[in-house]
Design goal:
- This protein has 564 residues and is α/β, with parallel strands linked by helices.
- It contains 14 helices and 21 strands.
- Strands 1, 2, 7, 8, 9, 10 and 17 form a 7-stranded mixed beta sheet that branches.
- Strand 20 and strand 21 form a beta hairpin.
- It is globular, with a radius of gyration of 23 Å.
- The model has no long low-confidence stretch (mean pLDDT 92).
């Protein structure tokens, strides 16, 4: 029997507790709002931020002269004509203030001669990416924000909450319905403003760099509530995810900081450098953008020149033991515990799903078209266009998180929004209470979906593969049904998988359908049957949920003026 719903009232509900969600909660509380920060895992320890070991793009200019306008120019260039100009400007212009605020809070940015130091990353015109040394950037940012939240009594935190649906009434978002994983109890959260900060969708893919709660929840929640998604076809693959030998207790994307600092040579299975065949001769430097590096590795494997496990070699054998230890200290010992000595061996790397450029359409206040709904971090669509510039992910999280929290607090002050009444949440509560008789192997269905996305909606696509993927997704959607599996018992993982699949299948459909419609290659979307970038496709594809179906339309992307 399902327990009676728990009712929680708050000014601002923030869903998702990575960097974007935590910064949104801090800023909303700073604006005078009472905040509830809800997450399905441990607060501040789930999502992508805590796993991110790399760098944060920001035009501080403390070592090398820089300006946000230069950062903006590189962001626009990487986006291949599809960046949303106001969002890209906000990202670059607000970044220095956020990075300095995190510094005041004690994040510990690496310094040289008293100045925050910056490293050169692919796609940037100068050293611009700050970091916390010994590949500790994401964990340090997460810890700093957790500490800042702990000092603020206006922020309540609730973990183990699976958000089922946003609650919409009288044209506005009024909160959300969830269930508590530890008890199965339904939860109704009434809020004057709601911020979605749930991260991206890379769990849709078999090999990915994200945690298990990155299945596109925010996109699906917003879509069902009536918001518009844009640029859903653009999934970025990280080219040098760890492949072999086996690596335990370390992030698969850890090799990027090594390349930032030490170069590193990409070699094919014949131990030959190969990137010059695909548009860039790195010559010991790390300058190849992610889409081009992914393409180069895939093509070498396709030509039969891959490494033994189907990727490429990454070699630091030119570096001495002293050089490696000076750059990465205790990380070298952790590698040794995994049997890896970089002075004597190359590791194998391969592209893995890493980031999503698409998301919810929003303005520069982080407001969606639905009154009361704001978005932050990777949930936001349009900023990065067709390909995200290296280092912009945590930047996007903190800048957009702060702005979303500020906007949500301002709405609370002026809000005369309707109150959440029982009739508004009835349908979502009925879904939480439902228990299907047929037990489904939802874990196997998740694996099937990941295989479909990896094999047919990966970095290199064709119309035939995408059409087949849409058929697979439709079949899995039919198999899933409309009633959740399992029971409303505590920690029923089959039931959690059902709700996850409900979101994942919706988002996978949006990605595959927009990829099929875009008959060109641009940035992270590469159609092998349509290999050229076409000027008539300088369009944002918009996805909406209307009458129980996905609808796709398009709107011209305004080409940003070149930086002055």
């Amino acid at each position: 029997m399902t327990p009676e719903p728990i009712r929680i009232d708050t000014d601002v509900l923030v869903i998702g507790a990575g960097a974007a969600g935590m910064y949104a909660a801090i800023e909303a509380a700073r604006g005078g709002a009472k905040v509830l920060l809800a997450d399905r895992s441990l607060i501040g320890r789930g999502g992508a931020t805590v796993m991110a070991q790399m760098t944060v793009a920001c035009a501080l200019g403390e070592e090398t002269p820089d300006d946000p306008q230069h950062h903006y120019g590189d962001t626009i260039k990487a986006g291949r004509g599809l960046c949303d100009e106001p969002l890209a400007r906000l990202l670059c212009e607000d970044a220095p203030d956020c990075i300095r605020e995190l510094d005041r809070w004690g994040v510990g940015w690496a310094r040289k001669d008293g100045h925050v130091t910056a490293t050169q990353a692919p796609g940037h015109d100068r050293p611009r990416c700050v970091y916390v040394d010994f590949i500790n950037t994401g964990p340090a940012v997460s810890k700093t924000l957790r500490t800042a939240m702990a000092r603020n009594p206006s922020i309540r935190k609730a973990g183990d909450l699976c958000i089922v649906d946003l609650v919409v009434g009288d044209g506005a978002v009024l909160g959300a319905v969830a269930y508590h994983l530890g008890s199965g109890a339904p939860v109704v959260i009434a809020a004057k403003a709601t911020v979605l900060a749930t991260g991206g969708l890379t769990r849709l893919y078999r090999r990915n760099s994200a945690s298990t709660n990155m299945g596109g929840d925010g996109y699906a929640l917003a879509l069902r509530a009536g918001a518009t998604l844009i640029d859903m076809e653009f999934v970025q693959f990280f080219p040098i995810g760890h492949l072999a030998p086996r690596l335990i207790g370390m992030d698969p994307i850890m090799w990027d900081p090594f390349r930032y600092k030490l170069g590193g040579r990409l070699l094919n299975g014949n131990k030959e450098e190969f990137t010059s065949r695909y548009g860039s001769d790195e010559d010991g430097k790390y300058v190849l953008t992610r889409d081009l590096a992914t393409y180069a590795i895939f093509k070498e494997v396709e030509a039969g020149r891959g490494s033994p496990h189907g990727g490429a070699y990454l070699s630091f054998e030119h570096c001495s033991a002293a050089t490696l230890r000076a750059a990465f200290g205790p990380v070298i010992d952790r590698l040794a515990n995994n049997g890896i000595d970089l002075t004597r061996m190359a590791v194998e790397v391969a592209p893995i799903a890493h980031y999503h450029m698409g998301g919810v359409q929003a303005d520069a206040t982080m407001a969606s078209e639905l009154p009361g709904l704001y978005v932050a971090g990777e949930v936001v669509g349009g900023t990065n266009g067709a390909n995200r510039l290296s280092g912009n992910a945590i930047t996007e999280a903190v800048v957009f998180g702060r702005r979303a929290g500020r906007s949500a607090a301002e709405r609370v002050k002026r809000s005369d929004a309707p109150k959440l009444e029982p009739r508004h949440s009835a349908a979502a509560l009925a879904l939480v209470a439902a228990c299907g008789k047929a037990q489904k192997n939802t874990a196997a269905m998740v694996a099937d979906l990941q295989a479909t996305m990896a094999d047919k909606v990966g970095p290199f696509r064709t119309g035939d593969k995408l059409s087949a993927a849409l058929g697979d997704i439709a079949a899995l959607t039919g198999e899933l049904g409309e009633v959740p599996s399992g029971s409303a018992a505590k920690f029923d993982l089959a039931r959690l998988d059902w709700f996850d699949l409900r979101n994942m299948l919706t988002v996978a459909h949006a990605v595959a359908a927009t990829a099929l419609a875009r008959s060109e290659s641009r940035g992270a979307h590469q159609r092998e049957d349509c290999p050229a970038m076409q000027p008539q496709w300088q369009l944002h594809q918009r996805v909406q949920w209307r009458g129980g179906k996905l609808q796709i339309s398009s709107a011209p992307a305004k080409a940003p003026a070149p930086p002055s």
